[in-house]
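Model: Ready when you are.
Researcher: Fold this.
Model:
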Amino acid sequence: MYVPYYYPRPNITEIPAPEHAEQVFNTFPALDGFFFFGAAGYGPELATANALLADKWVGAGKIFMASVTPFYRGLGGNYRVYEPRGFEAMAQEWEAAIAHEATWVEIVTWNDWGEASYICPFGKPKETELWEGNWGKELSHTGFLDAMRYYIDWYHNGAPPAITRDELFYAYRLHPKDVPGRIKPAEETLGLPSRVEALEDNVSVMCLLKAPAKVTIHSGDTSREFAVAAGAHHLAMPFALGKQRFVVKRAGKTVLDKTGEHEITRDSWSNFNLFAGSAGGD
């Protein structure tokens, strides 16, 4: 089977509109299907594209391979960043692929270090050295990988999986968005990436709760408590410099208590990358 990705012509775009889907479909009638290489975009844009393309190709009795990319930040001549709102973009992309019955789903990454879409574990969450510093120090994204298990089960089984254990996934940038990026201390700063104005200086949480609970996010010297029902939920609050801590309590008992492996500072060595970790109960 041949299921490629083609840019629409002549108006090449990374986020296809209906006319782009029509152009590719009509230009290549012999294709077995189509793969959406969706990575550079915001969650709602990528989710809408998954839905549009699934309806077109699956509706015609062909294969459609949807894309899921939890985070994207390019370097070099591709120095740009997209706000994923923690795990929300990833969830939106998965849910669109599921709702519109995508034949296949690819996590569009190939562990691309320079574009920060990787999910491959490469050590403990605190470890950052990879590929001899070719792209600077990298941050762990295993929190994204861990959180995807929920959506992968949903995709395979056709319904959200039962939540039998409490889990919490957290994501945050290690510096405010107004601090220019840099790869190595000896190099000149990289400046601010394009689309930086859309970034949110938030710490975000996705939680899977088997029963109602109170979730508290401690960010530096600030905190916020959320009363959360059972199920999957996305939470966020503005971040403060310092340690990031996440606590889940139920009936007065602490169920989860995890301090993020990295603090938030005004040192931009992580260069607008996103750190993602996790904690599981039971």
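Researcher: Now this one.
Model:
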Amino acid sequence: MLQTACHNWHVGQNARMVDFAGWEMPIQYSTITEEHHAVRRAAGLFDIAHMGRIKFTGPDAAAFLDSIVTNNVAAIEVGQIRYALVTNETGGILDDVLVYRLDNSYLLVVNASNRLKILDWIEQHRSRFDVTVEDRTADDFMFALQGPRAIGILNPLVEDCDIAEIGYYRSAAVNFGGEPALLSRTGYTGEDGFEIICATANGAALWKQVIEAGREHGLLPAGLGCRDTLRLEAAMPLYGHELDEITDPYTAGLAFGVKLDAADFIGKSAVAEKKADTNRKRRVGLQLEGRRIAREGAKVLSGEKEIGQVTSGTFSPTLEQSIAMAYVTADQAAIGTALEIDIRGKRHAATVVKLPFYKRG
């Protein structure tokens, strides 16, 4: 299995390690609930070096990216980041990605489970473009600091800027802990926070600096387990659950990541057809009665009729409530609709609620 720059540190902290998309990653250090609360109340530090980082340079870099992603890459300003989808010819989602525009290049951050697939997709379609593609995943380390105390922890470690001035979905080249790094402000938890990209050789040292700086602020290292409960509370879709190669961006509720009036991208006509389809399924939030968890694949019922399936479910540590996301038919998607979920052969009452389940104040 592949290992990140902080693998030895994780093992030394007795983290529970798991195989995730071919990487040996920490799923938890203490408990998922404790780490979850640390992110909501103070801060959590996540190793996300397993995510793919692909660099694009050359005169056609923007044009090429515009041909494979759904957002308007040509309009991205230096220092700006945009969320986008990579779609196939039928409009299905191959991956959801972040596109960074840097001074002389673009960076595409992709899901770990899809990195090789996206690299292959890139190779299939770049021949008519003057673009150089470099997989930086092994060369660079990436980690994320999330939580309300993130600025207070990180700012003293950054020597050449006030990180509070970095806007949401923006990035900046900084001197971090004495080393060059790229700092961005996006996140996958529903909290404020930053991602740091640095040379892999510097990764473990910079990770330890943040751990030490955050100790007095209540920072905890956080694993993939609470990353999932946090993103679900924030109603952020996860590839392989809410997103896959047969689900289009509009069904997934990701219209903000699609610019149909910009460049032609692979699958554009199929995506446009889905936009016009008022009967397509809807991604909804469900609040369940009781503490039982609705797992992926559980049937969603209206009377005796199956009208959808659960894509993700958990017991929310923040809300102390069983929650789930599901795709349901358009006529059953209104907020307040009473439904039932089949959990191991037994029906449990659920109500369609507004997404996200949690939004920071």
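Researcher: Key takeaway?
Model: The mean pLDDT is 97.
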